[in-house]
């Protein structure tokens, strides 16, 4: 019987020492044939702490991506589909701030967004902001994304790129070949600034399941006095299609794109969906 793309996932999110959780994360694992044509999407967003509507921005961004991406034409590539959807989400968030007469973008509908779309034997990475994607390699972590930050001083650090902060957005993109056993870790800054890379890698390696590992990592960041919201997603590649083992090892681009709001009303059928700030693990 031909192999199909299968993954295992563990996630954990907590508000930490803050009153509200402005992080939001989600996964959509569709059934066939959509899994073959569009893949599996994993998304993490972090609303900016200076904004009272940051949690709305992060939730809207994740929900919109996991709906609108699967509504794009099958003829579009993963890169084109995701970038156009992200551009539309960016425009919508920016418009909400404008309609609300929010002149200071640090108080508007602004968030980071980091996503992986797994299709066949390729991981497509999309990144805006300062959440991170790591690849677990033995007892260490390889950071695959760049932090979009502007450091003014040791006490003043600002996002240099985010969804909703400007009318257009620049999106980092990578395509990586995946193999069974590969593990990816997505984390917000409240986690990786406090939980050490070795601890995170060891937790993933030694834990009985991925949900337990995600919870241990969040608890470690909290124990080490993180003052921020805390979210971790862990994705393990269990199987890839038999005939999809010849994709390029790595490509990387940056692009600024602009488009109209992507169409809504499309619901993927037979999909495992998770929209939440705390979510159970899955294997599919």
How would you characterize this protein structure?
It is globular, with a radius of gyration of 18 Å. Strand 6 (132-137) and strand 7 (140-143) form a beta hairpin. Helix 2 packs antiparallel against helix 3 (78-99). It has one domain (6-283): 4-Layer Sandwich (Phosphatase 2c, domain 1). Helix content is 24%, strand content 34%. It is of the alpha+beta class and 284 residues long. The model is unreliable at 255-265 and 278-283 (pLDDT under 50).
Give the structure's gist in a few sentences.
The chain has 284 residues and is of the alpha+beta class. The protein contains six helices and 15 strands. A seven-stranded antiparallel beta sheet has the order 13-10-5-4-3-2-14. Strands 7-6-11-12-1-15 form a six-stranded antiparallel beta sheet.
């Amino acid at each position: 019987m031909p192999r199909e793309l299968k993954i295992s996932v563990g996630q954990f999110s907590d508000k930490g020492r803050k009153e509200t959780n402005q992080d939001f994360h989600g996964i959509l694992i569709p059934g066939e044939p959509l899994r073959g044509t569009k893949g599996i999407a994993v998304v993490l967003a972090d609303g900016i702490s200076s904004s009272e509507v940051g949690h709305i921005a992060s939730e809207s961004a994740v929900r919109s991506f996991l709906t609108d991406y699967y509504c794009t034409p099958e003829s579009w590539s993963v890169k084109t589909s995701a970038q156009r959807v992200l551009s539309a989400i960016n425009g919508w968030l920016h418009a909400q701030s404008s309609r609300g007469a929010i002149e200071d973008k640090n108080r508007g509908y602004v968030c980071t967004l980091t996503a992986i779309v797994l299709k066949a034997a390729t991981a497509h990475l999309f990144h805006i902001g300062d959440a991170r994607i790591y690849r677990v390699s033995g007892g260490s972590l390889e950071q695959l994304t760049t932090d979009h930050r502007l450091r003014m001083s040791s006490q003043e650090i600002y996002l240099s790129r985010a969804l909703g902060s400007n009318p257009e957005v620049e999106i980092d993109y990578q395509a990586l070949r995946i193999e069974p056993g590969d593990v990816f870790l997505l984390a917000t800054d409240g986690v990786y600034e406090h939980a050490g890379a070795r601890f995170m890698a060891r937790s993933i390696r030694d834990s009985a399941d991925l949900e337990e590992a995600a919870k241990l990592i969040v608890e470690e960041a909290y124990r080490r006095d993180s003052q921020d919201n805390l979210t971790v997603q862990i994705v393990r590649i269990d199987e890839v299609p038999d005939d999809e083992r010849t994709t390029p090892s790595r490509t990387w681009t940056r692009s600024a794109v602009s488009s109209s709001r992507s169409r809504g009303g499309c619901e993927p059928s037979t999909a495992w969906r998770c929209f939440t700030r705390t979510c159970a693990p899955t294997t599919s």
